[in-house]
Structures are given as structure tokens and as C-alpha cells.
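Protocol step 4 of 5: obtain the predicted structure for the target chain.
Materials: sequence only (see below). No template structures provided, no constraints applied. The aim of this step is simply to have a reference model before the mutagenesis design in step 5. Sequence pasted as it appears in the construct record:
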Amino acid sequence: MSDSLFTQIGGKDAVGAAVELFYEKVLADPTVNFFFSATDIQKQKGKQKAFLTYAFGGAPNYSGKSMRQSHASMNINEAQFAAVAGHLQSTLEQLEVPQDLVEQVMSIAASTHDDILGLN
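Step 4 output (C-alpha cells):
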């Protein structure tokens, strides 16, 4: 059996480092940072770490809201989705995650597109 993406990336510490850097980038970007103006960012980071741990195969389940539920009232558009995805990719590249793993993460991110934008 092959290691999960979570293990290949480096486990809890690597996911934690990625979430911290990712939110630095997102919060510095005026095209998307307003989404977090009333958010407890430490709580948000915890939710993101839990979700990514699950999405990358490091936990058997996730008890938070679905992507569709948690983004339903945000009215996110294509450009905003692309900006956040770009911050995710640049975070992984800055942390020197191997390209094949970056591609796997970005594929998972892309799979959330319709739910985050509230399509279909």
C-alpha cells in the first residue's frame, strides 16, 4: 500500500506550515482578503488544517461543513477562486513540495471548484 498524500507531503507539520504560509498570502491579497475580515483567523487555520488532513488522506473523516455549505453565502467568482488556488500552488512551491505532489494537491483543489462557486 502506498503512503497517503498527507504522509508524502510530510504529515501534520508540513500541512501546518503550508496553512500558515497560505493564509499569509491570502490575507495580503486585496482581491480575496475581505472574505476573512470578520473571521477568527486562528480558528479558520484550524479548520483548514483539519480539512486538508482529511482531503490528503491523513484522517478517516472530516466533521466540518461541506465545501458547498461553508462557501454558500460568499459569492466567490472565477477570478477569486483562481487567486486562492494560485496562492495554494505558490505556497507549496515555496515550501519545495515535489512537483508531482503539488499536482495532486492542485487536482484536489480543482475538484472543489463547483462547490465553492455554488455551481450545478
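Step 4 remarks: DSSP finds seven helices and no strands in the chain. The chain has a mean pLDDT of 94.
Proceed to step 5.
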